[in-house]
Amino acid sequence: MTDFIVPGPLAEPMKFGVYTGIELEVQDAAAVPWTAQLGLEPPRYCGQCGRRMVVQVRPDGWRARCSRHGDVDSTELPDYR
Ligand SMILES: [Zn+2]
Predict the structure, then answer these.
(1) Does residue 61 belong to any structural domain of this protein?
(2) Closest C-alpha among 22, 9, 6 to residue 73
(3) Structural domain contains residue 1
(4) CA 40–ligand 1 middle distance (angstroms)
(5) Ligand 1 mean position to 50 CA, how many Å?
């Protein structure tokens, strides 16, 4: 707890499914596409607010932007490729 900056779209804890835009509390696991579960797809929705993000896919990754929570780039995330 060293800062109070706005959390990024994929910062934990997330409230919304990043592939569905559905609140995690009510999201059915089956709603998440199989390819997304494998980490093959970029997130489409902000994990903080559920807004649809603007996603740019590159050969080496992707970049996603929420209008409220800013950008996240796959190269900044060790869990994604
Ligand atoms: Zn957001």
Answers:
(1) yes
(2) 9
(3) no
(4) 21
(5) 6
Is 42 a member of any domain? Answer: yes
**How far apart are the CA of 34 and the centre of ligand 1, in A?**
23
Q: What's 56's DSSP letter?
A: E
The residue that leads in pLDDT, 79 or 5, is 5
Residue for token pair 């509390």: 25
Ligand 1 centroid from CA 13, angstroms: 13
pTM of the predicted model as reported, rounded to 2 decimal places: 0.82
CB-neighbour burial class of residue 29 (10 A; exposed 0-12, middle 13-18, buried 19+): exposed
Of the pLDDT bands very low, low, confident and very high (cuts 50, 70, 90), residue 19 is very high
52 Cα–ligand 1 center, Å = 8
pLDDT of residue 3 exceeding 90: no
How many distinct structural domains can be found in the chain? 1
pLDDT of residue 65: 97
